[in-house]
Structures are given as structure tokens and as C-alpha cells.
Write the C-alpha cells for this entry.
Amino acid sequence: MSNKLLIVIAAVFLLMMGMMGAGFFILWSKMASAPQTVAAEQQNVAEEVPENTIGPLFSLSTFIVNLADQGGKRYLRITMDLELTGEEIKEKLEKRLPQIRDKVLMIIPSKTFEELNSSQGKAALRDELVIKLNGLLTSDYVKNIYFTEFVIQ
């Protein structure tokens, strides 16, 4: 091998090692400052978001309905609380209680055991009930539904 070839190979090797070292240095400095940035962002988010509070609750009496299974041998006993946007909506719900019970009694018996047996099925039922109940209301709304009793037999 000639001396020129050895010098070129050594120069390329040193240049690559220098570039790798610079890359590692940049990466290391960014990684060292990242936890401080994330902690600062989390603190800002915590200051902006209010505490996770539950709105006023409206309790519905227990529903016992047959499920839409073959043979009709299964039934569901369910009790739920409605989370509301404000206290003033409670009076509206009291006046519309027959309509609310009707909506619930039209939705739940159309479900099968397989649909309600999983946590995804219960969440889908909750979402469907919230949408239907909010269809009865004009200004305020039901934020969430909490199942306090859910027994399938």
C-alpha cells in the first residue's frame, strides 16, 4: 500500500470518529435537559387544569330488565348515577324522569349478555345512554354515567 492511501484512510477514519463524537455529545446534552423540560411542562399543565372534580349527581332508581338473549332467561339489575353539569339541571331531570326511565328501558333490553359482559360493552352502553339522555335536554347536559350496581343473572 502506498503512503497516500494510508493517509486518506486514516483521515477518513478520524473524520468519522469526530462526527460520531459530536453526534453523541449533542444527543447527550439534549437528553440531559429533557427531564427538566418535561417536568416544567407537567407543572404548567397541572396549574392550567383544575382538579378532577365530579359534578352534581342525580341518582336513578334500580332498573331490572330482561336481556335480548335467546330464550329470555337472563336479566340485568342496574343502578346508576348521572353526573350533571350543574345543580339547576336536577329540576329539569325531575320533570323528565318518566322520559328518562323510558329511554333507559328502551335501550338496555335490546342488549345481549355478550354485549354487556365485557368492559368495552359496558362503556358502549354508558356512551349510548349519555347520548340518548342528552337528546332530551336543551342547554345543560349529562357529563357521565356511573354504574353503582350492574348484576347480570
User: Anything to note?
Assistant: The helical segments are 3-48, 89-95, 97-107, 113-116, 119-134. The mean pLDDT is 84.
